[in-house]
């Protein structure tokens, strides 16, 4: 659903809709996992502040009246379900969860390619090294996220995703020499304060 939405939405709009995921997690986790997952009362304020920071940082056009906007909402709902599931598996070994998550992803992605394209293409050797890097970093990211869900409430861990755009724009500056504009400094400052609150509570 996310990649379908990406075909017709601006990157900023898609990113902003994906930031609804922590809100769905905060609502859904107590319903599905029990009242012990109720978010702290002040987490709602931090979530609103972080959403504002992301909005300033990404500067979306909010031109969402397309099927892409609907697909992005569907993607956010499915993502929130996946995050709640990780919290439900908090007592399982994190590496085991990552292994079976990746296996399931490979199987479902392969079936999707077969049904939509008729085959699973082998990528050219020139992109094997970058793909290996993506796989390694993605696996590490998945492990640390799974581990985090075993240590803290789902609502708190998912809210940390609001720091994502800050890291992304920082990477633009470090690796591509793209200088940030005023909205980076304003939105980024808001996100840093929100992130500091999450670290203190965590």
What does this protein structure show overall?
The chain has helices spanning 2-6, 11-18, 21-33, 43-58, 67-88, 94-117, 128-151, 154-159, 164-176, 182-201. It is mostly helical and 202 residues long. Helix 3 packs across helix 5 (67-88). The longest helix has 24 residues, at 94-117.
Keywords:
mainly alpha, 10 helices
What is this structure, in a nutshell?
This protein has 202 residues and is mainly α. 75% of the residues lie in helices and 0% in strands. The two termini are 31 Å apart.
Number of strands: 0
Quickly count the helices: 10
> What structural category characterises the helix and strand content?
mainly alpha
Biggest beta-sheet profile = none
What is the element string, with H for helices and E for strands? HHHHHHHHHH
List low-confidence stretches: none
Q: What would the average pLDDT be, to the nearest integer?
A: 79
- Cα separation of the termini: 31 Å
- Looking at the chains present, what oligomeric state does this protein adopt? single chain
Q: What's the helical proportion of residues?
A: over 70%
Over the alpha carbons, how many angstroms does the gyration radius reach? 18 Å
What share of residues are in beta strands? under 5%
Shape: globular
Layout of helices and strands:
Layout: H1 2-6, H2 11-18, H3 21-33, H4 43-58, H5 67-88, H6 94-117, H7 128-151, H8 154-159, H9 164-176, H10 182-201
Helix pairs in contact: 2-4, 2-5, 3-5, 4-10, 6-7
């Amino acid at each position: 659903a996310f990649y379908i939405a990406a075909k017709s939405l601006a990157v900023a709009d898609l990113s902003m809709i994906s930031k609804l995921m922590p809100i769905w997690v905060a609502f859904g986790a107590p319903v599905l996992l029990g009242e012990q997952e109720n978010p702290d009362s002040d987490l709602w304020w931090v979530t609103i502040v972080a959403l504002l920071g992301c909005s300033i940082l990404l500067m979306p056009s909010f031109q969402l009246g397309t099927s892409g906007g609907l697909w992005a909402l569907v993607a956010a709902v499915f993502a929130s379900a996946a995050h709640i599931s990780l919290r439900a598996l908090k007592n399982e070994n994190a590496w085991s969860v990552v292994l079976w998550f990746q296996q399931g992803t490979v199987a479902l992605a392969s079936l999707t390619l077969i049904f939509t394209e008729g085959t699973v293409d082998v990528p050219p050797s020139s992109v094997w090294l970058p793909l290996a890097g993506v796989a390694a970093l993605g696996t590490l990211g998945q492990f640390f996220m799974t581990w985090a869900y075993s240590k803290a409430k789902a609502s708190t861990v998912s809210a940390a995703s609001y720091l994502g755009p800050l890291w992304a724009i920082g990477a633009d500056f470090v690796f591509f020499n793209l200088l940030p504009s005023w909205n980076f400094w304003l939105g980024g400052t808001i996100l840093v304060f929100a992130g500091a609150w999450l670290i203190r509570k965590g």
